[in-house]
Amino acid sequence: MTNPGSNTIELDISLSTVEVFDTLASQPLAILLDSSDARHENSRFDIMSINPLCILEAKAGQFYLDGTQIGQDGFTIMQEKLAELDTSSHPDVPFCGGWLGYFGYDLGRYLEVMPHIAAQDITLPDMIAGLYPDALVRDNQQNRWYFVTQPGYNRLSTYLSLIKQNNADNDTFTLTSDWQANMTQAEYAAKFASIHAYLKSGDCYQINLAQRFSASYLGSPWCAYKTLRANNKAPFSAFINLGADAIVSVSPERFISVRDGQIETKPIKGTLPRVNGDKQADALQAATLQRSPKDRAENVMIVDLLRNDLGKVAKPGSVQVPKLFEIESFPAVHHLVSTVTAQLAEGKTAVDQLRAAFPGGSITGAPKIRAMEIIEELEPHRRSAYCGSIGYLSACGAMDTSITIRTLVCHQQKIYCWAGGGIVADSDCELEYQETYHKVNKILPIL
Question: Is residue 366 included in any domain, yes or no?
Fold first, then answer.
């Protein structure tokens, strides 16, 4: 072992990320933020931790710390707890202890007044974040493992002992029913028509509509995650052990990152399926997406929304769009991706930025609040963890979060998966409906 930085120890571990987390996955509130060995510019760090010091939850409009209702806003609590930690960090490692967890789509209800129409049949909290004093971090670029810890905590021996024992989760995962959608194609078409009416009346200029699939299962959600990870190679994947339940995510989309005061968000708007077995046709498909007037218009609408969301806490004049309409390709689909950057204003933090932009505009539509009201009216069930975010907020000021698309919730022996897309005035109902299936064709059939 070597010690290249304060509170950071470089470890001599030859195991892969999956092999290490295999031995940790059953621990209390074990969490893995996983870049999935993807060939992607954002696939550098894997972060995992277990057994947090305290747990912050959001339920029924209230925030709870270790099960006790608190009068303060949860984002304020997150900032206060981070301020109590040591900010020392290794220059190459973005996490030095802090919050890890998920922020469900319905956490938006704690920030804005929303109607209550959709059924809430998944009873998980709207947010679960743990304050973790340490973590194992793998730098995939340098092929190095690190243990990072806050001063006064010495849990390295616990991690190494668990890894050495190698009590891996060797359970299986099996669906015990077929997947069922929460709307028929005719019902989707009726909702699509309602959205078009809203668009024509000027309520919005883009609305995201999602359908939900569910099935019964037996076995280990971690086993399901490993199967999906191998087939999706998504750079913002994650697994969270919630005891009897779990969050399984193979997301390709970054929500917001903050590092050294620099903010970045990378909205995805525009999708076409891959053409397997024909490189020339597949390249043509990607070029078709990049040139599509409809998809470019949809993308730039959300870029403008996010420029505004970043501008709420950014240094004036610092918001930029260095990349517009770039193609990112994944095993199932090509995506049209843009990049928006900014610099945090003096006195503002990553927590401020998360609050200012949540939930991500790429999965609501625009204007955001009106789009969310229409989503609540049209989608039969609440979204739970889907279309929220998973990530970390570090004591050193860094943050990285995903948009939880391609994300599944395992709850009470049922597994839920969603797929949706942004609908604009010139969207075609049949194409939009089929796009939802393109997005999950490396998930539903594989499981």
Answer: yes
